[in-house]
Amino acid sequence: MNSRAMLRTVALSATAALILGGTLVGCSSSDSGSDAKGGSVDAAKATSAADFGGIDGLVKAAKKEGQLNVIALPEDWANYGKIIKGFEDKYGITVNSASPDASSAEEIQAADNLKGQDTAPDVFDLGAAVALANTAKFAPYQVEKWDEIPDANKEKTGLWVNNYSGIMSIGYDSAKVPEPQKLDDLLGAKYTGAVALNGDPTQAGAAFAAVGLISAQNGGGVKDFGPGVDFVAKLKKAGNFLTVDPTPATIASGETPVVFDWSFNNVAAAKDKPSWKTTVLPGAAYVSFYNEAISKDAPNPAAARLWQEWIFSDEAQALYLEANAVPVRVEALKKAGSADEKLIEQATFGTRSSDWISPDAAQTEAANTVLADRWAAAVK
């Protein structure tokens, strides 16, 4: 559970098509690598593995750098613990993971503060508002699996690419509170001082999505986040809203008995809290994607590009699925026989594409305006 990014949102039709048919250490490593023919390669300008003479040349250049700096990747978030270890084991490259609980905005801030230093982030895992507002900080790159990523899920030059999604859900301590059957249940006395969002929706993607889901369940939707803010204000007035930012520790201790968060996070929380259950309310279901991007100022530019190749490989995409996150290449995995149909059903939490909602860029901007204007007052 972490205050993560504002989500890169895609249209419902694109999302439906995806599932149904379709302290850091290190040395600066911006040195050129060598391609398969022995020529010099400026890794920081490479836009595909072909610039290195192929994937083997990229691997050689990345191994020369020897390390990768990542940020805001908690081990218990979407299986990043295994994804990072898999990269290290496969390529023998050390991954330096900083500030796992950082938000998307804090990722960008870290890149600005550490620019030119060996410890600056090489890659980002971001949500919509922050990613779209910072494309000038990204380096374009197209992975080998580029053609298997739907057009709606990538910027055409590879400045950002959607990597995984989740279903917005409600996690709850079944030993303390009953399972909520509908949104209004949370206004009842049984949920006094119990309900939390995963972060501040003006900064954190999971919380942003939670308000979007609440809005849709309260007569609004992705076109109007106002009803979501209104409902949270009612929760606050009823004494049921918690301003505590939930973490695995607050869930395990019982401090946050009810949490709006991505299904993959709530399911993972049960590992340390056996009474923790996850539910998705009937009706509209909020689905959206995070974004993978390479920093144009990456101190390890070849390793950053190899990380992109790893993230979109069959192996890493299947690791997302293993953790109840929906990988962007899920259809390609199915065709290749690399994805378990039961895991896909589990990751989508039994929801139907016809129920999925996800704001587009314009709707995200409008939602951000509503939240900037009204959120602080609603929860004070």
Describe the structure.
The chain has 380 residues and is an alpha+beta fold. Helix content is 37%, strand content 16%. The protein contains 14 helices and 13 strands. Strands 5, 6, 7, 8, 9, 10, 11, 12 and 13 form a nine-stranded mixed sheet that branches. Strands 1-2 form a two-stranded antiparallel sheet. A two-stranded parallel ribbon has the order 3-4. A hairpin with a 5-residue loop joins strand 1 and strand 2. Helix 2 packs across helix 10, helix 6 crosses helix 7 and helix 7 packs parallel to helix 14. The longest helix has 19 residues. The chain is globular, with a radius of gyration of 20 Å.
Topology summary:
Layout: H1 12-20, E1 33-34, E2 40-41, H2 55-65, E3 67-71, H3 80-91, E4 94-98, H4 104-113, E5 123-126, H5 128-133, E6 138-139, E7 161-173, E8 195-197, H6 205-217, H7 226-237, H8 248-253, E9 258-262, H9 263-269, E10 276-279, E11 285-295, H10 301-311, H11 314-322, E12 326-327, H12 330-336, H13 341-347, E13 356-357, H14 361-379
Parallel strand pairs: 3-4, 8-9, 11-13
Antiparallel strand pairs: 1-2, 5-11, 6-11, 7-9, 7-10, 7-11, 7-12
